[in-house]
Amino acid sequence: MSQTKVLQSLHKRQSPLAQTERQLKILEEGIFSNGDAPKFGQKIQQSLGAPLKTTGLDILQVNLGYMCNQVCAHCHVDAGPDRKEIMTQETMEHCLKVIESSGVKTLDLTGGAPEMNPNFRWFVTQAKARGVNEIIVRSNLTIIVANKKYHDLPEFFAQHQVHVVSSMPHWTKEKTDRQRGSGVFEDSIKALKMLNDVGYGLTGSNLTLDLVYNPSGAFLPGDQEALCQDFKRRLDQSFNIKFNGLFALTNLPISRFLDYLIASDNYEDYMWTLVESFNPAAARAVMCLNTLSVSWDGYLFDCDFNQMLQMPINDARQHISQYQNDLMEGRLIKISQHCYGCTAGAGSSCQGAVI
Amino acid sequence: MSYYDPKDLRKFGRITEWSESLGENFFDYYNSVFKEGALTPREKSLIALAVAHTEMCPYCIDAYTKDGLERGITKEEMMEAVHVGAAIKSGATLVHGVMMMNKVNKLDS
Q: Does the predicted interface ipTM exceed a cut of 0.85?
């Protein structure tokens, strides 16, 4: 994707694609409106015999804000330094109440760079105190070395047994920097070494460091296990870096990745690839069945992607302050054609492949 | 208008419609070949890419370039594989030069 030079968010550039209505219109048109390919809802009905519905709450995924120190070419959040949306402590309090009342096992913190929220450390400490089993932080790695005030994040993560999930699109500098910005590879390597230094990813340690791989262009991720072994060998040989697992994620055709697909004339072929790789087993295990996504301002979504498309959950109670446990029992999932991204091949979720 | 249409690659599976048993046998065989064996699927993908070039098959080049990217194969690895194919093709041409030399030596000694 060398033709894409992303330095500002779609919002900052005032791109038409910054409007979610425009994105959803594109996803409804073309091969899906002329009848060449089935819409996602039809495909689900044909293969599973029923629409997708929630089965319970296992993961509460909270987006702490769209601000980020990076401007990655593929970012589905359209995050960047120019994004000012950030979760307040009041909204975090509502999330903590849900953690207590629901008994949810996993709190998954994302952004932007979640660490840039001024109340990030307070929230992690409070969530741990309220009894959540696992806290995941989705770290872009470079934030750890971006500013002195973040240098002790590895120690903070270790102290609170935070499960660190870090983006690392490739083990080569060229591919990583092209996708995530100049200098990102070297800073990511430094940050990974700092995480290893406090025990993350090491054999016998209970501090988990997983990497997230997503393709650098208009193709699907290959076999997750094979990619993991490849990354392990290359990062160990070249930098003596250790990590636990690798999550292979599919790029969903929304936001900046949709912009790239259209600009590079890859959109239609990519959508065909997703449709033709539809896997019913992956569809039965999609993450929206047991995940609830909370936006920076407290609104509720089936997943982070629906959040970015501003498709709130199918219920009148759409804010975290209105959460009740029955919200996760058999609620219909909101869908569009981007959902094909989660059902292609071995499937894709925030925890990687689903089968 | 080209004889080759990239969209035709998506229709490859349809060859089964006009000869079901032979088509299915072919795809079963094809899929078995690319499974993990004495060689890894990654190694097989690079062999396929090299052969795709020596056969000059646009569909195969399309398919195995994409397959390589999906497997995290770098562009340097892909280009080296293409050179292996090119070296064998040029070597296969040049080695026939021995035939030419034999013939010259026989006729013009």
A: no
